[in-house]
# Entry
Amino acid sequence: MILSLKNVSKTYPNGVKALDNVTININAGMFGLLGPNGAGKSSMMRTIATLQSPDSGSIHLDGLDILNNKIEFRKTLGYLPQEFGVYPKMSAHDLLHYFASLKGITSKSERNALVDKALEVTNLSDVRNKHVAGYSGGMKQRFGIAQLLLNDPKLIIVDEPTAGLDPAERHRFLNVLREIGTNHIVIFSTHIVDDVKELCTDMAILNGGKILAQATPKQMTAALAGKIWTTTVDREGIEQMQQDFNVISSNYNEDNKLNVRVYGEVSPGDAFAKAEPTLEDVYFTTLSNDKLLLKLKSHNHVLNNIYTRSKNLV
Amino acid sequence: MFSTIYTHEVKTWFKKPLFYIYAAVLFLLSLLISALAVGVFDSDNVTVTSAIKLNGAVGIYSLLGFFAILTYLLIPSIIGGTIQRDFKNNMHNVLYSYPLTKWNYLLAKFSAGMTMTLLIIIASLIGITLGFYLPGANEELVGPFKIMNYLQPFLVYIIPNVFFYGAIVFAITAFLRNVNIGFMFVLVMIILQFAAGSSVPTMDDSYWVELLEPTGDSATYSQIKYWTPEEQSTQLIPITGTLLYNRLIWLGISLLVFIGVLFAFNFSQNPTSLSLAKTKAQRVTKKNFGTITKVVMPPATQDLSFFGQLKTAWIIAKSDIAYIVKGWPFIIIASVAFAFSLLTMLITGQQYGTDILPKTWVMLQFAGGIFSTFAYLLIYLYTGLILDRAKAAHINQLVDATPTRNWTMLLSKFIAMVVMVATILLIVILSGIIIQAYNGFFEFELPLYLFDLYVINIWDFIPWIMMSLLIHTLIKNKWVGLIVLLVLAIGIPPLLGAIGVEQGQFIFNQGAGSPSPSDMNGYGSGLGKYFTYRVYWMLLGIALFALAVLFYRRGMGTSMKERIAFAKARLSKSIIAVMALSLLGFFAIGGYIWKVNNLDNEQISGKEQEELQVNYEKDLSKYGKAPQPRLVAVNTFMDIFPDTRDFKAGATYTLVNQTDVAIDTLHVNYPDRPTEITLDLESDIVKDFEDYNYRMYQFKKALQPGDTLIMKFETENKPNTFFDNNSPVVDNGTFINNSIFPSIGYSDQFEIRNTQIRKKYELAPKDRLPAPDAPGARDNNYIGGNSDWIDFEATVSTSSDQIAIAPGYLIKEWEEDGRKYFNYKMDSKILNFYAFLSGRYDVKRDEHDGVKLEIYYHPDHDYNVDRMMNGLKDGLDYYNDSYTPYQHRQARIIEFPRTGGGFAQAFPNTIPFSEAIGFIADVDDEDKDAVDYPFSITAHELAHQCGHIK
# Structure
């Protein structure tokens, strides 16, 4: 199973180029779409979910031209938008039946079985008769998963589902997603690097409407092996350091000093120790670089063109 | 602080297209109506006249009042919307944490909303004023410009009323954060206002209504009801008495409400809850951390076939239905409509202080009429609400990403609206039955309720549902959609009328008004025509629906350009086929209707009718003084065929030259149907004005004084079709009078009487009633034209199950070829005014002082037959003593269907009496103020014949 976007572009009336000639292939498994706020993640998700039309380009799922066969495609789609509301005064049970019907499941017995299973999987069985409008953020998000499962979708799109969830809910949520993701395509957008690290079999970094990198999380970090250096510096020294080196990130530690991570082909100096690259390093490097850093040939999963050196990097 | 918020709000409104749309619509509508009222469109239309000058204070007040009502409907979206906007954009969370005082905040918001509403009404006022001065305006109708005429209605009515509606809507929005409930409130108030307006004229003491009716209209009505046209044209409305108190009371109430809001409002983030029972507080904790479940979904069969989608449409419609029917707005409206129909029944369900029996058709008329107004408003509103429902709940992305097809989505909305209408109709039945039971009347006639509402009436609503779906699909803002629909419904028909479009087939969902049942005659012959028109509009509705499918909003907001591109992409073969077929049917039926109305029959527009009357008078009135022979005897036959609703009739007129000059020309008005006239004198038709159906026969040898002329004719109706009824004959209860027969001489009955129209066409002023000593004024009696007292004989035939009646005594009755024949002959002379009746009657017979009394009534209508019999007897006693003896040996009352009219009429020894009066009166003998009108009308009609008083 493969979802392929070819030269997809979308410019909003206010001039924002949300998608800029995006070409990408996505295979079965968990696919993480990582990018900062405003990168175009939601636009890409909505475009794949056929909720908005691209200005140009094509999208195919296993040979099905989804932009011209929306209904056929939506049969196999499970979509959870970044934000959604529910009809007031409707219980999870009723609302799920409503969605099952909208998804074309006309047999009542099938609907019952599906709704029960979806409630069970998302652990909402106990509150099935409570109004969804009164659910907590986590429960509502699980409800969102329950509704997308109802048609046993082949392609699942979830847009920043973990935002605002407490750690326990987040874990639970990601586990359910992972379970589904074993046989299906699950596209999952986030700006939280850890979400991707833990779960995804494949990932891409998106910014300014462009795909900057695509590989597995492991390949991503491997690409930076031996090039990340770390040191500790006083608050006063950070400005100088930012001038001299390629600082990827700096974090306060408990001594009120800064742990600094620096990118370099060779050791930037004695004060620096070699560090294991993290996915976060890849993310920040890619964003600051703003150029195609890694490209994975999706069919053979072989790393190709491991990286292209940019002007900024030494 | 106040001015910052105020200017910000006003500026925000000025940036919104919504404001300009409202203002433009109101302006144009006002311009149109005012231009219509002062006759700007007279060149294409009937001449508009008015007794008063329309730009007097009274004229402005009534014109502006109509548009003010439209504007009140906008108040929820303007004043309510002003405060709602902060909730909607979630601004309130931030805003309420700022150091604003709530007084400033609320005052500024409210004043801004008031300002915008008043500006819209000013736009309407400007429209009205401009209309008066458009080229073509009739100067007779417009007086000199006086600014006070405009200021007074604005200051005394508009500002306080906008304040009143605004304050309450503001309160509702501030506390419940629901503009829709505010809208329902305004709707209910407007309806109550209409209720008060329609009941005040019939009330003896309307003091309390005048005080308590919030808009002051009832109080105003009683201030000016006895004014002469001159006063209404020139004077300001006096603000005294109940009107003054009314204005003060409601200004006070509005102020109280508003101040109440100022005090009670708090900057909290949650709306005030309406629920009565408090749910118990519970501590909620989280369980079930981190369990892993295998996710294997059961099989899901997605059936997106046509029938599968129909099923889906029904299932998802149920959710919308629940949303509508269980929602407070609907419940409130339904209860108010129910209360209102009870009230209407109590106040207006009476004639002369006496209740009429709550027969089912009466219920259908009152309750059905009230609810249908509500139903239309709810359709216009709720199609918008349910189309916007997913979006408003932010669930639209989930819904839109499902594989359900666009037409299925739209169909489900359609189904929901139809069910809503069906629910309203169910409430009609319930309220009807409750009113009936309350009056102790238990003949519920459930099949009639069901047939009238669910087989006939419901089709009136369906084309409008489809139109609403299209409008609300095309227009995103539901309030703009609502006003567009209101304009379509109440603005477009007069506009079309203004440019001379009068035929129902060119005005959306019009043509053949709603058929209404009669106990005697059921729905008569109107159903074929009614359903033809309904199918015609339904077909257009289907095309509109298909168009709505093309433009159905799905996915993220898009520009108009994109929507047109989408629509093109969605234009599938099946949609094209549906559109083409429905439009084909629409035009085919339309063509047929047009042919029947314009080719098979002569279509005369109001304008043409007016000109016809003018020309008739100009061309023919010169013959008014031409001496004519007078009718002295009529021997007539009338064959009535109730099954096919045909008739064939004829008569022999005996005419005598009673003048002292020779008459060389006979002037005949002949009916507009196949008619054969023969004279026993040799003559030529010298002139035949076919437009006026007026023919002149010139005798070869003049008719000398005292000579007799025999005129014979036969006439029959043009054939009836299921669409085109050409005959006054009905299935049961035919009532035809001799106006369908030819008559002699020029008649001034057809002349235009309105002074202003006569002046426009340069016709001489017409005397209302000539002086008794004026020459010729007493030549004719009050009825029947060129005739004196006549001898009368009639043979009437009908189908074998009916009785046929004409004036005279029954001489002979026989059957021939399966038909019944009745020969009636009068032994004394009568006026030239007679009628033929035929129906399936029961007969009640009695005798009083040698006069045979008979009542022919519909077998179910035996409620008051005894009273009517007493009316006949007491009447005879009284008139015999007070006037002259009753000249006939027999008096008969014959019931006829209410579809023929709601009156009784006195013919010699024959009194046709409508089923709508008397027969179904519910006389309360205890009530001294109530009139026993079955008795009194009977007696009145009898009096027409005793001593021949009018």
User: Anything to note?
Assistant: Chain B has four domains: 2-264, 306-603, 605-767+781-838, 841-950. The CA atoms of residues 85 and 91 of chain B lie 8 Å apart.
